Automatic annotation (TrEMBL):
UniProtKB keywords: Coiled coil, Signal
Protein name in the entry: Efflux RND transporter periplasmic adaptor subunit
This protein's record includes keyword RNA-binding: no
Pfam families: Beta-barrel_RND_2, HH_MFP_RND, RND-MFP_C
Any single GO CC term annotated in Swiss-Prot or TrEMBL for this entry: efflux pump complex
Similarity annotation: Belongs to the membrane fusion protein (MFP) (TC 8.A.1) family.
Lineage top rank: taxon: Bacteria
Recorded coiled-coil stretches: 146-180
Gene Ontology molecular function: any one: efflux transmembrane transporter activity
Segments forming domain Multidrug resistance protein MdtA-like C-terminal permuted SH3: 293-353
Domain (CusB-like beta-barrel): residue spans on this chain: 225-284
Leader sequence segment: 1-35
Length: 368
């Protein structure tokens, strides 16, 4: 039987056909080909360093008097007059407002009348007591009559004391119808107008006493914690930065504002210029340090397991590893890190989106 053309011969000593030789040559070439080179990705890096976290803080506030009081009447009534307006200067003892004194004048006249009648009653009671005392010694009166005379005298004496006290109280009440300034200062607010019926304790005018001035700011809680109380703060007018003053923290509110959740901080000014008038808007600048941190460019930040992370290069193997970090502060161009990386670590700053753990990289530039 004949052999088909093109079939591979299995007879010893016979040469294999051309298709088989070509297949063997291709298989040999594949075995001898080298493995493809590993994927080495070029990246930009930075060598991080640990430094003190000195943060410059700038806040807007206003100038207020260190000592500001609200003047109010000590009794109810209808206000007839208010002679002090906002911006007026007041002096100690100056009358700034008056109430209708009619009721207090009537009470004073009644107290005066009671006091006028009380001494006559006391004189009569004393004379009766002295007569009963003499008659008792001679045996011409009873002990009960003497006791009644003695009690009447004591009652008359008490009525005199009561009438005197009522007179003093009526005089005080009449004096309370005039509201006087107790110290020099400037009126900064008013709380009632003439003709209104006001209550005792209701603010009529608010006076900023002469003396020291404060720059008052609403400060976030984290700045209150990290800022030292003895820090020197530079205060400048918002509309004229050349007008400056130096101050120190004088008072920090013990409780945060329920709406803004900020703390009111009062900075006492040292020799403030006249241009820093009450109510002026000012800008306060200070530096605060909160320990050592590491700062990396914002482009280095990525995410792993739902937390911030960066790619760190192993100098020995030139491979990258993903490492989680704790971020203290996010800035437009940088990120402040407290934990997760150490000084001297090489962190990838460009090309982080295309990396994978263990990937080899080629450093385009290392900065510090």
């Amino acid at each position: 039987m004949g052999t088909s053309v093109g079939a591979v011969s299995s007879i010893p000593g016979r040469t294999a056909p051309w298709p088989a030789l070509i297949l063997l040559a291709l298989l040999s070439a594949c075995q001898q080909a080298e493995a493809p080179p590993p994927d080495i990705r070029p990246v930009k890096t930075v060598t991080v360093e640990r430094r003190a976290d000195e943060q410059s803080v700038s806040l807007t506030g206003q100038i207020r008097a260190q000592d500001e009081v609200s003047l109010a009447f000590r009794t109810d009534g209808r206000m007839l007059e208010r002679s002090a307006n906002i911006g007026d200067q007041v002096k100690p003892g100056q009358v700034v407002a008056r109430l209708d004194p009619q009721n207090q004048q009537n009470a004073l006249r009644s107290a005066q009348a009671s006091l006028s009648a009380a001494p006559g009653q006391l004189t009569q009671a004393r004379n009766t007591f002295e007569r009963q005392q003499g008659l008792l010694q001679k045996g011409y009166t009873t002990r009960a009559q003497f006791d009644d005379a003695q009690q009447a005298r004591q009652t008359a004496e008490a009525q005199v004391d009561s009438a005197q006290a009522q007179l003093r109280n009526a005089q005080d009440q009449l004096g309370y119808t005039e509201l006087q300034a107790d110290a020099p200062g400037t009126v900064t607010a008013k709380g009632a107008e003439p003709g209104e019926v006001v209550k005792a304790g209701q603010m009529i005018v608010q006076v900023a006493r002469q003396g020291g001035r404060d720059a008052v700011f609403d400060v976030p809680a984290h700045l209150v914690r990290m800022g030292p109380r003895q820090a020197t703060i530079t205060i400048a007018l918002a509309d004229d930065p050349s007008v400056k003053a130096i101050g120190r923290v004088r008072e920090i509110a013990p409780q945060a504002d329920p709406v803004t959740r900020t703390y009111q901080v009062k900075v006492g000014l040292t020799d403030p210029p006249e241009a820093m008038r009450l109510g002026s808007t000012v800008v306060g600048r200070a530096s605060a340090t909160s320990g050592e941190v590491i700062e990396v460019p914002a482009t280095a930040l990525t995410e792993a397991n739902g937390r911030p992370a960066v790619w760190v290069v192993d100098p020995a193997t030139q491979t990258v590893a993903l490492r989680n970090i704790d971020v203290v502060r996010y800035d437009p161009a940088s990120v402040t890190v407290s934990q997760g990386i150490e000084a001297g670590d090489v962190v990838v700053t460009a090309g982080v989106q295309a990396l994978r753990p263990g990937q080899k990289v080629r450093l385009l530039g290392v900065t510090s």
